[in-house]
Amino acid sequence: MVVPSGSLGSWETKSIVSNMFPLLVVLCIIVLWAGITLEDAEELLETYGLLAVMVPTMVDMGGNLGAILSSRLSTRFHLGTTEIDPKDRVLWANIAAVLALAATIFTALAIGAWAIGQVIGAPLGLSTLLLISLTSGMAVAVIAIIFSILATYGSYKLGVDPDDTTIPIVTNVVDVCGMVIFIGVSSLVLGF
Amino acid sequence: MDVRTGFWSIYRETLPILVIALGGGLFAGLVLEGMLESVERFPGLLVMVPVFLATRGNVYGALGGRISSGLHQGLINPKFERNERLINAVIASFINGIGISIVIGFISWGALTLLGRSAAALPELVGIMLIAGVLTSFVMIGGLLLLIFTGYKLGYDPDNLVGPIVTTLGDIFGMAFLFLSVAIIEVML
To answer: Which fold would CATH assign to domain A42-190?
Structure first.
């Protein structure tokens, strides 16, 4: 971000609000789809309360993974790596790390939800929770990786700073995918 | 860089942050589970939950990114003071955060009505979002600045702190205040 010296430039309240608010409205409209998916699943959630416990993490974690990868990729672009090369070893190290993080966190989510279930008396087994959490979590992680690479690369081709628009859009789209996939996988696994 | 070394260094750096985010997410999930009872009283409440949570990340993530760039550039100091840039950025975040919350109430009600589904009265949905939006703004802005300033003074790079702080605080306080706000509207109306 370039800030002209001597003036407030991009630090004016009015300029921050007028730059940001339209994007916020667009993002709300994108995520509304996740909201409608959640409302549709109301009966499923009322039957299996543990699924509701998992919802915020399922929705946020895909976006977190996408944001981590995007910011690492955009730093590399800033430093001069401007092409996607399938033989790029650092890119593969990043992708492998994101997948390993996803496997760890979604296993922990299933165990955490199961432990909460033991306390609040909810009827889902650990293997069912692991199946739901890992299937939907790994699917979301793959989507987050693909979107982050394409969006960061695309921003540079178009000359847009990815921090300002691309990363928020990727994060929100991945959030929606997280919700849709989680509800879909849960319904399939539980035969609802 | 060797692939294996790179892999482990990324994994080790990021895992603690994600584990904290997981804790915040599970807490928010418990609150959501407790809120399911109110859904029948306010149809449309569930539609607003993911939008409200995502917006917390968008508004305060942007504020955090701005503050951390400002600290790097020496435009603001890591303390609560009458710095014009800091004050402008904070006011803008209040306007964005509270303004977009009201918009969420309208958009959710509008979408449900267009799709021919049942929705609670417009003032109820907007009222829930307004109260939750105002309460969350104060805690998120204060908490985010406090944590970034403290982290910066202790030598942490604010860029690495912003994302996880915003997600975790947003989940915890977003859901807690949404729950409180639903309770307030239930009593008032």
So the answer is: Tetracycline Repressor; domain 2 (1.10.357)
> How far is the alpha carbon of B80 from chain A, nearest alpha carbon, in Å?
17
Rounded to an integer, what distance in angstroms lies between the CA atom of residue A45 and that of residue A32?
A: 18
What number is the average pLDDT over the span A32-46? 94
B28 CB neighbours in chain A (<8 A) are 56-57
Of 1.20.1250.20, 1.10.357.20, 3.10.350.10, 3.40.50.720, the CATH number of B3-188 is 1.10.357.20
Please state the ipTM of this predicted complex: 0.89
pTM for the full predicted model: 0.89
Q: Would you say residue A66 has pLDDT above 90?
A: no
**How many cross-chain Cβ pairs, A to B, lie less than 8 Å apart?**
208
A43 Cβ neighbours under 8 A, 6+ residues apart: A192
pLDDT tens by residue, B82-94 = 999 999 999 999 9
Interface of B with A in 138-157 (CB under 8 A): none
The residue with tokens 């998120």 is B140
Which pLDDT tens digit goes with each residue over B19-52? Answer: 999 999 999 999 999 999 898 899 999 999 999 9
Contacts of A53 (CB under 8 A, 6+ apart): A113, A116, A117, B26, B29, B30, B32, B33
Taking contacts as CB-CB distances below 8 angstroms, the residues of chain A near B171 are: 56, 60
